[in-house]
Amino acid sequence: MKYKVKKISDFESSIEITVDFDDLEEKKDEAISKISKSLKVKGFRPGKIPKNIVVREVGEDYVLEEAIDIYLPEQIFEILNKEEISPAVRPVIKETLAPLQRNEGENPASVVSDLRKMMQNKVGIIRTKSQLEDALEDLNELEGRAGSVFGGSGKSYNPGWHQSLEIKAMIDVSRMCTLAALRREESRGGHTRDDFPLPDHTHWGKINSVIWMNDSTGEMEIRFESYPPIPSDLRNLLDSEDLHEEE
Questions:
Q1: Other C-beta atoms lying within 10 Å of the C-beta of residue 188
Q2: CA 233/CA 227 separation, integer angstroms
């Protein structure tokens, strides 16, 4: 097993774990034993079903899924101890598995498709204030839909589950683009505001947009920072028109 700890903020970290199939071998027997206790096979008592019959009845993939469910929590808490991380809440494993544990729900592909269409229509190259404000509302609605999608069954080779987990990041990126476009009241490069068709070199041409997640409110926020002075050796390569300096 390999893992990587990434610090997201002062109060949040993520752990990315890469599991080899060899790591799960010792957990397969435990998984088969667990499955056997609830499996009904004619001629055998629950918990007393031979391993090969359990595998035959439920399939190798299901056994592997159960092995992962047993293996991952143990490894996560071992990593927390090793890295001396003391979580304030239980590590988020349930959220990752949630799309698989629902009995029904919307296909994640439908949410992704609607997200793409909405962003193309309202946050495309030509933008207006009203469309961008509508887009932010639409993103809130799409986020609600994303929270109840059904990822299908099975953890192995399941693109529906992967897509279910990716939707939140896609909505976050979409919201960042929309928020930045709404607040930048000018046209510049690939960003064109139909209600602000000209570039504003005196103000917007000298600042960068910085977007972050406010940990206390859970909301995405934006601020503006002046970019650092251009180094003299680079400035000498540019003329006043490139720099948009006033005479």
A1: 15
A2: 17
Q: Give the list of residues 6+ apart from residue 111 with CB closer than 8 angstroms, or none.
A: 142, 145, 146, 149, 167
CB 40 within 8 A of CB 21: no
Q: Rounding to the nearest 10 degrees, give the CA dihedral for residues 158, 161, 166, 168.
A: 170
Q: What is the pLDDT along the chain (247 residues), one digit of tens a residue?
A: 788 888 777 777 777 877 777 778 888 888 888 888 878 888 888 888 998 998 888 888 788 878 887 888 788 878 888 877 776 555 556 677 778 778 888 999 999 999 999 999 999 999 999 999 999 999 999 999 998 998 887 766 678 888 888 999 999 999 999 999 999 999 998 899 999 999 998 889 889 999 988 878 878 999 999 988 888 888 888 877 666 654 3
Ordered structural domains, the chain, with CATH: 2-92 (3.30.70.1050), 108-197 (1.20.58.100)
Q: Is 145 helix (H, G, I), strand (E, B) or coil?
A: helix
Is 0.90 surpassed by the pTM of this model?
no
